[in-house]
Amino acid sequence: MKNFSIGDILIGGRQHLVLFAGPCVVESRELVMRTAEQIKSTARKYNTPVVFKSSYKKANRTSGKSFVGIGTDEALKILAEVKSECGLPILTDIHKESEASVAAQVADILQIPAFLCRQTELLQAAGCTGKVVNIKKGQFLAPEDMKHAAAKVEETGNDRILLTERGTTFGYNNLVVDMRSLKIMNDLGYPVILDATHSVQLPGGDKSAAQTGGQPEFIFPLARAGAAVGIDGLFVEVHPDPSRALSDAASQLKLELLDELLRQVTEIDRMVKQIA
After folding, report:
1. CB neighbourhood size of 85 (10 A)
2. pTM to 2 decimals?
3. How far apart are CA 234 and CA 83, in angstroms?
């Protein structure tokens, strides 16, 4: 399996796991900077490389009345400040081809949302920026079929590709993580990330509030299981107070719990990669 650099971070090829963490969406400068500093401090404690993730806008919400963002320019400016002040690489997602070059001015990694993982022109636009491209596996897609999404990026001459598992549709309003998919996608030759927070969502599950529900009590066991399989990265959305988050409030991890999660996961990761 190939490995490559994201700034000073090497991912893949049996390297120790990389943490991808941050709030679901840029809500304010104060929240983002405070969260980034704490993530950085926690990751340093466990000698874990970290990428800061946050959406500069949310284009895929359950309700048309849901929070979308504070504005593209302002949100990207805040992410650029995280990059310069905290020294962290940035991951953010794009939804249209026209967004790729704009987000690439700040982001080190362009993320393709799961629902859009088959969109050829979007994948190509991301690939053409030369940035690392993280493709989230669609909830409807078999893991082996991710080779086609990755090939669309590689055809642009960009082979710095990450594949992310974020749960598979299991009936209505539910997701399940098939741990086999982590091995299957890894065998395609790309570093694999487990998104342990979106995987606990109950899509459209909160009927009264017209929003996605979640079961955050399963974040820890899923993350531990992924580490035991040998993932290259762990993706976790964190927030100082998830109940007040403006997006994905039901599935984000409370920021103060990141320390314990990382302690458990890094211990498993180091053991597995010593013996595998």
Report:
1. 11
2. 0.95
3. 20
